[in-house]
Design brief:
The chain is an alpha+beta fold and 373 residues long. It is 17% helix and 31% strand. The strands form 5 sheets. A 7-stranded antiparallel beta sheet has the order 12-18-17-16-15-14-13, covered by helices on one side. Strands 2-3-4-9 form a 4-stranded antiparallel beta sheet, with no helix packed on it. Strand 15 and strand 16 form a beta hairpin. The longest helix is centred in the last third of the chain and has 19 residues. It starts with a strand and ends in a 9-residue tail after the last strand.
Length: 373
């Protein structure tokens, strides 16, 4: 699990007038809205006696702990200690971690880390989200699997010939091929030709694509959001686009915020069928991913064999490895679990860089030391 990335914390519509608990990167967080409606994300632990703020209430622009009523503002600073009165002098040390948030594409994104703004990978672009040319659906899926494994599966086209009959068949696996690859520091994009079987169903569905008619498939990844995006151009006029943000709940569980768009059959009456097919794809992938060994995506390729067709996915692995080996952004899960139930911890926030000499009450999670700097 990596810090210093943007992750989707929750659907925007879920966070209203009450605190909302979320778990990400093995730690607990609380989301709430201030009086202006802006969403905020804080570490979900009270400095006083460890109460869970998510069980409390929103008090104006603050969140109040349910245990003793301590109030925290959007920056994580204690604003009120009720037992001491409004004139009580609150020290600078009385603060918890607060994380930058943005609302995009119907989701609340939180930056979980302490990297300065100029060094952060951006939130991925999604221009099709509110384009009237597309019909949009959203859904959610939970995996008992590492988030990096989920992302890699989402951009691995070779598996479609064996796992997803609607997108491929074993007899055409060799004919499928990559035609283009582009990469950046935190993203990758490719284009591919695939030869899936004809759609099953009535005459209308069969006319959408002939048997083994080539389709252009465009997978992409982005480290922010642990995004797996794929666009399938069924023919010149019909496309499907999936934009899946995969948030690590912990090292063994992943929560996928899925947005699916289609450029055809845009009436509501067709939504049920589209959602059913999306969930069927998730079910087919789950049967494979949740039994993969090891659970974690390997940090290198020494214990796996790769072939030419894996070169796009290997770009994702390389980008992730640079975050681990050069930047030191990987959480030391073993060390973190050694302290579980003994002390509270938090993902380090930008506030820790703003106040470098502050003796923080809550320690930050341990990180794996980079191999090279």
């Amino acid at each position: 699990m990596l810090i210093n990335l943007w992750y989707v914390a929750e659907w925007s519509e879920t966070v209203k007038d009450k605190p909302v608990f979320v778990k990400m990167l093995g730690q607990n967080f609380v989301l709430f809205r201030d009086r202006a409606g802006k969403a905020h994300c804080l570490s979900d632990v009270c400095l006083h006696r460890g109460g869970a703020l998510s069980g409390g209430s929103v008090a104006g622009d603050c969140i109040a702990c349910p245990y003793h009523g301590w109030q925290y503002n959007a920056e994580g600073r204690v604003a009120l200690v009720p037992s001491e009165g409004s004139k009580f002098a609150i020290t600078e040390r009385a603060r918890i971690d607060s994380y930058p948030t943005q609302e995009r594409y119907g989701m609340i994104w939180a930056f979980l880390g302490d990297a300065p703004e100029e060094e952060r990978f951006p939130i991925p672009d999604f221009p099709e989200y509110d384009d009237p040319k597309w019909r949009r659906l959203t859904d959610e899926w939970r995996w008992k699997a590492d988030a990096a494994r989920v992302v890699e599966n989402g951009i691995d086209l070779a598996h479609a010939s064996f796992v997803h009959p609607v997108f491929g068949s074993p007899e055409t696996a060799e004919a499928n091929h990559i035609t283009k690859i582009e990469r950046g520091d935190c993203w990758g994009y490719s284009e591919n030709l695939q030869y899936p079987p004809q759609f099953k169903g009535g005459p209308l569905r069969k006319r959408m694509r002939r048997d083994k008619q080539p389709t252009v498939t465009k997978p992409a990844y982005h480290l922010s959001g642990m995004l797996a995006r794929i666009q399938i151009d069924i023919n010149e006029k019909m496309s499907i686009l999936m934009f899946d943000c995969n948030t690590p709940v912990d090292e063994h569980n992943t929560r996928t915020f899925a947005t699916q768009l289609r450029s055809f059959f845009k009436y509501k009456m067709f939504d049920g069928g589209s959602r059913k097919r999306l969930l069927k794809i998730f079910e087919q992938d789950t049967a494979i991913i949740e039994r993969i060994a090891p659970n974690y995506l390997p940090d290198d390729l020494s214990n796996e064999m790769s072939v030419t067709d894996d070169r796009f996915m290997n770009g994702f692995r390389l980008a992730r490895r640079k975050c681990i080996e050069e930047k030191g952004w990987k959480i030391d899960v073993a060390a973190m679990h050694n302290m579980k139930h003994k002390k509270a911890m938090a993902i380090p926030s930008p506030m820790r860089r703003r106040y470098p000499d502050l003796d923080w009450v809550i320690d930050s999670v341990p990180l794996v030391k980079p191999l090279r700097q």
